[in-house]
Amino acid sequence: MTPIEIGLISVVAIVFLIYSGVYIPIALGMVSFVSIWLMRDNFTLALNLLKVAVGDSAMEYTFATIPLFTFMGLIVSKAGLGRDIYEVMTMRFRRVKGGIGMGTVGANAVFAAVTGSSIASASVFTKVSVPQMIAQEYNPRFAVGVVAGSSVLGMIIPPSAMLIIYSFVAEQSVGDMFLAGVIPGILLAFAYVIAIWFMGRFTPAFVGGRVVDDSERMSSREVASKTLPTVSIITIVLGGIYTGWLTAVEAGAAGALVALIIAIVRKSMTPRAFWDALLETGHITAAILFLITAASIYSRMLGLAGLPNQLEDLLVGSQASFWGIMLLYVLLMLFLGTLLDTASIILIVVPLFLPLAEAMDMSLIWFGIITVVGAEIGLLTPPLGISCFVIKSTIDDDRISLKDVFLGALPFACVMLIVLFILIEFPILSLALI
């Protein structure tokens, strides 16, 4: 077989193995290693490339962003800041039809800016938002749909684990990727709020809910005490990166320190919880390092096979337009999103399309935002909508089925798709802060 044939077979084999339940890094690394061995008929070369991939991943300075931001997010979650932001946001929207849903979106957007995890957002707000919405007679499908839809903000608004993974695969600045995600994340949050308003106005049966007594209001002092800790962390992290005073690694360290101080001052961090956060940080960091290492050898295998260049020649030779190529890219991500998780999609698709994006003089920062938003739609679509599964497993209500969660999330997946096409049409939205 030719290298091209081996490369094509390897990509199909990787997708098949991942969908069959094989751990993603193992599928990527194993198939890539065997493919290089077959293409070059040299076991030693394949072994050396694996050694280089491991070394390059572990010794990369920017890799330090992963444990630092992960630790920061875990501390913030355990300190109860998500619940505080939720209470403030829902208080401001409670007199509007679907107001608690709007408040949930706003709280999720703020929470995403200090955690960077869709799974954490889905878990936290399933516990604090869904029971309250159901108690106020909101449609259960709408309640879980709002949480599922807004949870994806955790992977778009920085600091985001997916933006970090893309930056390693595409060899882009983590700080630039973070700044590029700010406006698209805020845009998506606003789009969700507008969509909820329209649903409340034109499909009130789907939203449900009732007007609640607004006699009890939070004092300004109480609002400040609940919001200032989170706002201070966001200001230090994103403000430090934007002004250039801090690198992404330094911002992660500063954010983690401030989050820990806040948790200690609030007396919301027990020694046991601190130890659990450290252990979980280690587990997540090791898993992501394994992913990045496997992606590195996968990229080298694709390069040896010549698949990216073949794809570039095919699409350029067919004289496909910019929108034609982007539609193909989006459709591919949407299809893979029904089968694979976001990290798998990024690791498999990006190395194939990067040479084409560079040849067409696309900004790789903008291309990364498009990739993450497109892949994130998969978190809301069956059969592998991870956020939907997390919500179902977290909620303690037999009246809400997994089907209800997916149907409730469907309108928000459509909103994401609309925002995605807006971001494709107007790259300045992703690049304005850089």
TrEMBL record:
Quaternary structure and interacting proteins, as annotated: The complex comprises the extracytoplasmic solute receptor protein and the two transmembrane proteins.
User: Where is it predominantly found?
Assistant: membrane
Q: Which family does it belong to?
A: Belongs to the TRAP transporter large permease family.
| InterPro entries on file | DctM, TRAP_DctM
Tell me if Ligase is a UniProt keyword of this record.
no
For membrane topology, the record states:
Multi-pass membrane protein
* Transmembrane stretches, start-end: 7-38, 58-77, 98-122, 142-166, 178-199, 245-265, 277-301, 321-354, 366-386, 406-433
Would the keyword Transmembrane be found if you checked this record's keyword annotation? Answer: yes
Q: Where in the cell is it found?
A: Cell inner membrane
Q: Which Pfam families match?
A: DctM (PF06808)
Listed name of the protein: TRAP transporter large permease protein
